[in-house]
Amino acid sequence: MFRKSIVASVMTLGAAAFTFTSCEEVTDALSQGDTVAALKEALGVGVNVAVDRLHSEGYFEDAATRIGLPQEAVSAFTAIKALQNIQGANIVLENVGLGSDLQDNLITLFNEAATDAAPEAVSVFSSAITNMSVQDGEAILFGGSGAATTYLKDNTYTDLQGAFHDPIVNSMNKVNIAGLTATDAWSKFALGNNTLAKNINSYKNSSNIIQSSAYKAVYAALPAEAKVAVDNIGEVDGDISNYITGKALDGLFLRVSQKEDDIRTNAAARTSDLLKRVFGRLDE
After folding, report:
1. Which residues contact 178 (CB under 8 A, 6 or more apart)?
2. pTM for the structure as a whole
3. Residue 170 sits in which domain range?
4. Number of structural domains, the chain?
């Protein structure tokens, strides 16, 4: 009887320990689930705020999000500007059509295309956030400034670029200045740049002593910055859409990160019970 009592007690204690452990695991699982859900919610809020701001204010207005020219275009326009001031530079320019108005228009059109496409980013980002696998929500929660946004960028950037590419292309073919779309403007640049690159290469390597001497004289008269620019001019791809897509995403990630940090540090920015419960832990 006594032995049975001991056995029964051990079994009861074992069952209790099992029940306690199981409940503890469930509690931990729910806590992790809440943390992950809160992080995703914060990112969703950040995306909506980012898109609203970028679409209303535009990419161009803030230097932090403004899309500039790719380096190959910077080199080309720097070289053109310098060559225009050197007598005899027409030997390499030959009316390639790369004036300062095209430079300004390209920058404006790049930013207008990104601004126009911004609303399409909501569904693209929302899908990425929903499907994003988060293994350690606690590490991200306590990871400091922009940790959730960084995690999102590191794990979904390639997919986001693919999904956001078509909206960017559509906007590039729509926004225009005096009838010149972003796509058309870059095609014009690429044609002029590639012609210039071929002309420079031709004169630089010419077996004709007069042509070679003329090029050397023009090159020698250039300031150091312009010489670097001329040396860096090479043929470019006529499709700039991947570049603009990437820069547009960078601007969105920056704004999402800023909103995430607002939620992290400002209790008033936590607009749901879940955000208050989870991010409130950062205030302790």
Report:
1. none
2. 0.85
3. 2-283
4. 1
